[in-house]
Amino acid sequence: xxxxxxxxxxxxxxxxxxxxxxxxxxxxxxxxxxxxxxxxxxxxxxxxxxxxxxxxxxxxxxxxxxxxxxxxxxxxxxxxxxxxxxxxxxxxxxxxxxxxxxxxxxxxxxxxxxxxxxxxxxxxxxxxxxxxxxxxxxxxxxxxxxxxxxxxxxxxxxxxxxxxxxxx
Amino acid sequence: xxxxxxxxxxxxxxxxxxxxxxxxxxxxxxxxxxxxxxxxxxxxxxxxxxxxxxxxxxxxxxxxxxxxxxxxxxxxxxxxxxxxxxxxxxxxxxxxxxxxxxxxxxxxxxxxxxxxxxxxxxxxxxxxxxxxxxxxxxxxxxxxxxxxxxxxxxxxxxxxxxxxxxxx
Amino acid sequence: xxxxxxxxxxxxxxxxxxxxxxxxxxxxxxxxxxxxxxxxxxxxxxxxxxxxxxxxxxxxxxxxxxxxxxxxxxxxxxxxxxxxxxxxxxxxxxxxxxxxxxxxxxxxxxxxxxxxxxxxxxxxxxxxxxxxxxxxxxxxxxxxxxxxxxxxxxxxxxxxxxxxxxxx
Amino acid sequence: xxxxxxxxxxxxxxxxxxxxxxxxxxxxxxxxxxxxxxxxxxxxxxxxxxxxxxxxxxxxxxxxxxxxxxxxxxxxxxxxxxxxxxxxxxxxxxxxxxxxxxxxxxxxxxxxxxxxxxxxxxxxxxxxxxxxxxxxxxxxxxxxxxxxxxxxxxxxxxxxxxxxxxxx
Amino acid sequence: xxxxxxxxxxxxxxxxxxxxxxxxxxxxxxxxxxxxxxxxxxxxxxxxxxxxxxxxxxxxxxxxxxxxxxxxxxxxxxxxxxxxxxxxxxxxxxxxxxxxxxxxxxxxxxxxxxxxxxxxxxxxxxxxxxxxxxxxxxxxxxxxxxxxxxxxxxxxxxxxxxxxxxxx
Amino acid sequence: xxxxxxxxxxxxxxxxxxxxxxxxxxxxxxxxxxxxxxxxxxxxxxxxxxxxxxxxxxxxxxxxxxxxxxxxxxxxxxxxxxxxxxxxxxxxxxxxxxxxxxxxxxxxxxxxxxxxxxxxxxxxxxxxxxxxxxxxxxxxxxxxxxxxxxxxxxxxxxxxxxxxxxxx
Lengths: 168, 168, 168, 168, 168, 168
Fold this sequence. Notes:
The structure is a homohexamer. A 5-stranded antiparallel sheet of chain A has the order 2-3-1-4-5. Chain A has a single domain (33-164), classed as 2-Layer Sandwich (Alpha-Beta Plaits), CATH 3.30.70. The two termini of chain A are 22 Å apart. By secondary structure, chain A is an alpha+beta fold. In chain A, helix 2 (64-77) runs antiparallel to helix 4. Chain A has 4 helices and 5 strands. Chains in contact: A-B, A-C, A-D, A-F, B-C, B-E, B-F, C-D, C-E, D-E, D-F, E-F. Strand 4 (146-156) of chain A pairs antiparallel with strand 4 (146-156) of chain B. Chains A, B, C, D, E, F: Homohexamer; trimer of dimers.
């Protein structure tokens, strides 16, 4: 696998596709089980009326954000069921934060493991499922909500090294 | 439920939260089982190198987009498992299209049902899971891929009427 | 199926086991799809210290009960995956209430459908999963928590008629 | 995590809720993967007619208890899907025993692992799912069955040490 | 869809692939929800020693066949999760029979529904999962067990009409 | 467990059934986590018309085989959910190959792990789910397709040693 490496740890090919074009779950049995983390973020843009409701103006906001937070945590655990070529791994911790801003909801998920693959996909899945749950929660009030800017901010651990968005 | 309606079918409150703030799965047993559709879109922004690979330059692109398409279809079926307050419904058709553009992958999902609730969440989930799968597929080459602009474009059927993004 | 009926709608045999003793999922295709409800209750007995914590004394109780409520709702949807001979049905509404008492947490789940089988098992599963989640939440503080008195209180709809616990 | 410890290994706070009240999956990556066991018990109280049927009087009891036993074993594997903040762990063994008594069915589940968290929740879930399956099996004959006294009897392994119900 | 029909109800094309070659879940919302059944069979060939064990010679056969029967029933319910383009449908009854012969285990599954698609895939999946479970049960004794001859024997209902293997 | 061993590593009893006949998930916590592989094969026999279609004669074959390949990979991950007494294990790689022959589709699955149990069941499940997906894909054209000859070809690793079909 190393021959395809460019400086900085990036592969030059789609590793999930073999030379004949067939999808496969890449063998990671040679990789070391080490501490790894990933942090991903995303946003849901909603109408001003929804921002009011999520801030609890005019009615108890109650479980609204809790539902999305819990859905995100549970979603992280389902990553290998959803994404065909993801390895099943032992997630050792998940945190999902939701912050209501003037234009929507900012979501951050942090996932930890001590396993053979990184947890970027788990963090992105946690953000995505939390975002979908926010949209579900508000869709009767605002059909035009948009999920946007879901991306990895940072990862640590593993052979390809640490990564920080916007850094080197 | 009708008293909270504003013109155009929008509710004024978060219907998934009761007056005490507790989350609930809203009772839809009184709703009619009718033909309903929803179409959602989204995009994954990737590096130029990934665009080349997804277009099959330098290697067979093979299953790359197929994996995402199938993951999206299967993801639509898992919507009620992922989103806590979604009703389990009988999806009667799903189509997921992926188009490689100069800056990434455009994703469209169309979902149909003949059941008691709309399928907007199913369409959004199909797009989200397809997008996550694209990111998984390319992440060894491009760690900075971004999922963006996931939104409902159109829905038909149901009591709240048809909806078209940007229309009335 | 009617020949085995006793007055009051009870069968005299285990309907899920055929005459040779083999388990089967009973055919319900002849049953009518009608409105049905079920309400089940249960309790988790916990230590006085846990009661304080769940009431928010000394720390924010925050999501503690929300997590159990949401787990109960999601659990109801998983009933046919967990209970081998349960039919997959279209749940049309779920409500899970948790009340902190002086000795623990009282749980009530109400489930509705418009389908071919009753939803008693869905209501009991919602209560059970909510109760397990309460135990998980408090187990670091109180290893001796007990789940108890999980039972159907009431059901309506279906050919066997309405049932109310302690009634006829 | 140690500062909150009381003598005997109990925490003083709900560890699954952070200082702001938000639910999280606690990070266990620092915990050691060691041999751990848990044993949980519970009971289903049923009518005398059901006791007869489960003992095979008047018809073959056949698969009745097998279905519950197998459901319990499979339920243990689903614990992290059902209980939002449970870690996915590698269960290495499960045993579920059901004994028909004069008043119902006594259930015992023993779960083993060699992983980073205890398996109390897995054992309690196995008992709960087995109990729900018994209720499903008998509900056509006895609508009033009650699931009761689900509790951890014993656990071994892990930093918080061994626990035996009624002991110290 | 009718133009591609040959006499006898067979299509001339792969209906799950559209004209561009993309997989899709075919829209069945126009199909009628009617009573449908399917029966599928299959076999597991095992060694003489395993035949003895499954017949209970020298040890109680106990749950051996029950486990496979229950796995088959539960497997039928999971068909739309396993097979990407299968529609989620409301199964209304499942029966799985296992018969020990001199050379192995014969498996028959019968599935019923009152929904928009046939249940051939559900019946085939029930047989497959039951067969896999038999192999799992005996593999410590006989590593060479073979699953074979899994096929639809009969179907009724639906627009394409009844089908009987070897018939017209 | 060793006392029941015959030469060559075969057990003389059904290890998944205890002395009373009750099913159990065997405790593997004492087994070593080592590199293990398994390769299984199977076939789907289809009509000449289907062979033409799968070879892309007269229409783009497109995703037809991709869907089955991906379903097989995802199926391998679901093995412990489908087969009641299978341990949940960390699969570290899966490869599913499909080859169209003159009489059908030959399927091979190779699964790797670094865990406490072998992966024969995962490889067999991958083949079975891929085969079921092929049948689903072609069933509108050929109702008589047959899944056959699903078997383990080879395994390596683990205490019982390597195995090669037809070898010693």
